[in-house]
Amino acid sequence: MSEKKNPSNLAVWLGIADNSFTRQKTVKFGDASAVNSGRAYGLITIFAVFLLWWLATSLEWIKPIYWPSFSAVGTRLEILLSEGFRNITLWDHIGISVYRVLSGVFYGAIIGIPLGLAMGLSSVARGMFDPLVEFIRPIPPLALIPLIILWFGIDEFAKIFLLFLASLFIMTISARAGVSSVRISKVHAAYSLGATKFQVLRLVILPNALPEIFTGLRTSMGVCWGTVVAAELVAADRGVGSMIMIAKNFLQTDTVVIGIFIIGIIGFSIEILMRLLEKKLIPWRGKG
Amino acid sequence: MKSLHIKDVTMTFNVPGGEDVHALEHVSLDLKPGELVSVLGPSGCGKSTLLNIIAGFLSPTAGEVTLEDERITGPSSERAVVVNGPSAERGMVFQQGALFEWMTVEKNIAFGPKMAGKPKAEIAATVERLLSVVGLEDFAKKSVYELSGGMQQRVALARCLANDPEVILMDEPLGALDALTREKMQGLVLKLWKETGKTIILITHSVEEALLLGERLIVMAPRPGRIEKEFHLPFAELGLEKTPREVKGMPEFVENRDKILTMIWEMEEDIMGYKEPAA
Q: How many CB pairs under 8 A join A and B?
């Protein structure tokens, strides 16, 4: 019998060779764990996209007004970084959008977490707030924009209020779910060890609900990022969303494309950052 | 030390739209201080319900449980509880553990004394003593989820001793462990009983474990849940000098085990109306 040669680490990382464990499996089709990252193919995809971009613009398959060339994007990026867009630096546009998201999530968490905990712990609170939460939850935050503009105009408060609403119900529901995920054996144990109700809440229920609450925070961040961009498209003079909307009016497609990339990169970074934080802050997640 | 009295306890659960469940009917039992009692019975015989009533998590439909003269109406640090832990097998999650996985081993053990408002130095001394009793001195700063199932149950045992309770209630404490770990832990339970002299009630569905870990063995029967028979056994005493393995090999042990097994088989056949096909 011939010995199988071990594949190189690089080949395994790229996903073009099975790792030493998967290699020994005879059943691979249908075994989800035998499907690897396929990084090599990911690189091919990225390369193909950029190649298509380069070909389409340099061979003028597509007009610059619909999609800009690399060099146009590069030049525009330099201008945006040095002069900014409409007298506001690119960093300020990004900063204001991120600030709105963080404020919205912050206020949503401050109100939503205690509300959700109360709903998970008391029939009165659940009964009182359940109809509101269940009714408002399925409404996309964007549908509230007209009403919020009517009430508060288009200043900063209106935007943060919209994001607050977007995160409020996510936070409430996740905190409520966190409370219901607490195993009764742990609560019983705490009482039998002499804990008071308040100690049970602080030392058992709260830490037990933290993983769910954190998932809520992560979801809120994502939803609020999407909402802020959309809200800025509708009514704002600063922020990444408004930047691409205004650029569109001036047919500055290169700025629009840059804006879209920035939105994607920041959304992705938020997700990665939250996952790292979660690993660091809640290492016991899923291990009870 | 206080004695525990279970007086004519009946527990009926009303199932909306269904028949009432008679989890316990006229159950009476008296425990002297320092007794080690194992409770054995097929599923549905109300043994966990009984334990929950003693712990104070459930209030009986009729009858009462008293510790010395004091009626039990809720949980208290006088009555410590140890329940089933996570399985020792990797990947299997029983999700019944009662340890606080967000705390380290020593914080778990210190929980009770801390709630009682003991001074810091005293808590530290208690934790150190209990860690050495259960053999986990080197694991004080570890998170509980880093430990194996057997070690986690050691932490649970240490934690329940930290408040120096009158009674320790164990509900299948070793149920999720593999056979080897389980046998070691049975030895530990006996050792703890000897060293602390606590009153211990241990619920199990393993006949062997019930024989080994009970000066008194209570066999319960279901529908309605009741005490069927009681045995006084020498094996727990013997287990203080011999290893669990040695005790389990004794002819008297084997004889008793077969007797009780036959009894439980017949009990299940009676109830289920089901006969094992002849071989």
A: 74
